Amino acid sequence: MVADDLRSLATVAAAVIACMGYARFTARRLRPGLPRLAAFLPVLAVLPFLPLAFRALHPRAISGFFLAWAAEFKLLLLACGQGPLQPTLPLPTFVAIATFPMTLRDPKSSTARPGLGLVESAVMAALLAAIVSLYRYEERMNGYVLLTLYSVHVYLALELVLAAAAAASRALVGLELEPQFDRPYLSASLRDFWGRRWNLSVPALLRQCVFRPVRARLGAPAGVLAAFVVSGLMHEAMFSYITLLPPTGEAAAFFTLHGACAVAEGWWAAHERWSRPPSALATPLTLAFVVVTGFWLFFPPITRPGADKQVIAESEAMVAFLRDAAGLAVDSAWSILSSWS
């Protein structure tokens, strides 16, 4: 499987570069609007199928997020003359911005947040490895304890994957990117969690593609709810990449529920004299709501068909590979030092 997916990675990378090269070429020659959108249709049709080239779940899910969601939305924005993509960008930079779900750092901003450092990344990687090691006892675990581990696993994995993508962008094309998480465990409301702390490239895209157009016609509450509904539909697609099964509607229900609650939060916040819970209470209540509704609606489409077992198996294989590689590196270094002495 590893050899097959390495070949698939090379094929998918070549196809992405070709697609983005074509999109950049046509965008330089066509004005924003229907002609540019029509020219993009072949690329928009091809990108969602590329993740299916992978047999392993992790590269299929990650490339699905990168290509079928982030890249598609950015190309739709480019077709309208908006968004982070510019036809004048060098091709490597254009490809990186188009395919990685990242937000460019504003060099003039004085409030830019630092990304994950080596120490933080190492701590998160160690915590993730510890969680993976606990899965060997999953048969003896309470179901809710296991789902709690899954929740932390998702957060740590996304942090590390997106930080790695940011590091690759910085090394290959010199892009400075905003970190994609801002301590979501400190969120004091759903609006704070989804809009300002969790996977920030997604709300940035939804804000441009969905919220602003709907707000202009129907008002801010409708724009918020529409953004959450679209996020739910895209998560249904992401879950289909994970399970290779048709959508169940549960992810859409999860995000629609959170969207309705976020609208209610905004309505309550608009009344300045109405009481609000202190942060010491608001944060645990917010996290509890996210976790409990996640247990109810978010995880079942993954756990029901057993996709979580494949996630565990692949994670255990990756941890074992890294442990063996680290041991080999230490042995080699020790041998070299011994030969010098």
UniProtKB/TrEMBL annotation:
Membrane topology: Multi-pass membrane protein
GO biological process annotation, one example: lipid metabolic process
Domain Wax synthase: 178-256
UniProt entry tagged with the keyword Transmembrane: yes
Cellular localization per UniProt: Membrane
Main location: membrane
PROSITE patterns the UniProt entry points to: PROKAR_LIPOPROTEIN (PS51257)
Keyword Transmembrane: yes
UniProt keywords, alphabetically: Acyltransferase, Membrane, Transferase, Transmembrane, Transmembrane helix
Residue ranges crossing the lipid bilayer per the database entry: 6-25, 37-54, 116-137, 144-168, 222-244, 251-269, 281-299
GO molecular function terms noted in the UniProt entry: O-acyltransferase activity
One Gene Ontology cellular component annotation held by this UniProt entry: membrane
Pathway terms, separated by semicolons: Secondary metabolite biosynthesis
InterPro entries, per database record: Wax_synthase, Wax_synthase_dom, Wax_synthase_Magnoliopsida
Database matches in PANTHER family: LONG-CHAIN-ALCOHOL O-FATTY-ACYLTRANSFERASE 3-RELATED, OS04G0481900 PROTEIN
Family: Belongs to the wax synthase family.
Protein name: Wax synthase domain-containing protein
Species for this entry: Miscanthus lutarioriparius
